[in-house]
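Q: I have 400 residues here and want to know how they pack in 3D. Can you give me a structure?
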Amino acid sequence: MKLLFVLTQSLDSPSGLGRFGPLARELVRRGHQVEVVALHPDWNRLPARRLIEEGVTVEYVSQMHVQKEGSHKRYFSPGRLLWVSLLAVIRLTRAVWRSEAEIIQLCKPQPLNALAVRLARRGRPVFCDADDYEAESNRLSGGWQKQVIRFFEDGVIHYAAGITTNTTFTAGRFRALGYPDEKIIIVPNGIESGRFEGAPETENLRRQLGIPAEAPVVVYIGTLGLLTHPVDLLLEAFALVLREKPEARLLLAGGGEDFEALRRMAGELGIDGRTIFAGRVPPDQVPRYFALGDVSVDPVHDDLIARARSPLKLVESLAAGTPVVTADVGDRAAMLLDSQLGRIVAPGRAEALTDGILTVLDEGKSAERRAALRRAAAAWDWAVLAGRFLQFYEQLHQAG
C-alpha cells in the first residue's frame, strides 16, 4: 500500500512526535510505502528539505503559518501571512498532485493542507485525522479566521473516506455533524517504546540544571502557550507547593509564544528562584527530563481545546515511570485509570493541582512504582496502535 501524509507542521512538532511520525514509521516497518509532504516552522534555515527517515520519505515544501526560533514562536503580519499561506497551498498542491500514493492521509484538517488535498486528490480516497479542535486551538486575530478554519475542518465530512481521531469528544463532534459512526475510529496519541527503553540517566541532568540532589522535582514538558496550555495554573499551584515543600523545583521544558510572559509571572509569584525554564529540548532527551521528575503535570481548563486533546505528555511521562497529575477533562481520567497512574483533580483550579502534586510527592517514588507505570504505557505503543489505522484503511478502502 502506498500512502501520502499531508501535514502543516514538521515531524518534530507535538503532533508529529506523538502521532504522524511514529505511525508512518510503523507502517513502513510493516512493508508499506509512506511519503510525507509537510510545512516547516523554520523552512528557510533547513539544511535539507527532502530526506528519508527510517524508510519514510519526508519533503518539507514550504514555510508553515508561524515562525519558530529556539524556544520562541513568532506570528507573521497579515500581509506576510497571506503570502506565506498562498505559497504553502501551491507547493502542497503540487506535491500531492505528483504523488503516486493510493491513499491520502490528511493530517490535522487545516485550510492549507485541506485545500491542497481537495485540489489534487485525483479521485484517490482521503482519510482525515483530527487530533485537535483546530478552530479553537489556534491563536487568531479575528472571528472570521475561526470561521474559515471551521469551514475546512468540518468540511472533511463531505469527502473523507474515513475519519480517525484521538478523543471521544472529537468523534462525537463529527457524529453530530452527520458523519457515519462506522467511518470514525478513535486512536489515541502514543509512543515508540524504543525511545523509553532502559533507565534514563538523570544525575548529570540534575547537576546541569542546578537541582539539588534532595529536591523533589515537578516537571512540565510541552508548549508554553496559554491559549492551549494553561501553564499559569501550574505556576500558581507551585507557589502553594513551596509552602509545604520549600526545597522543591519546578522544571518547565518547552517553548512557545508565552515563554517570556510565564518567566515574568514566575518572578511576580516569587518562585523564579525555584523554577527552571529549560526551553525546548530535543525529542531524544524528553525521556530523561520526565524521568528526572517525581511528578509531571498536565494543567487544563475544562474547555473545548482540552476536551479535544489526547495529551502526549501523559503517555510519555508514564513511559518514563513518572506519575501524572491532570484534571478530569475529556479522556484524561480514563487514560490514568481514575488516578491509578497518577492523580485526577478538578480542572481550572490551582489549589486542586497543588493537592494532587503534594499527594503524589508524599507517596514517594520506588522502582516498583516506576516499573508499573512503564508497563501501563505499553498500551499506547505505536507497534499496537498502527494496526488499528491499517485495519481501518483496508476496511474502508476496499468498501469504497
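Q: Anything worth noting?
A: Residues 78-98 form the longest helix (21 residues). The mean pLDDT is 94.
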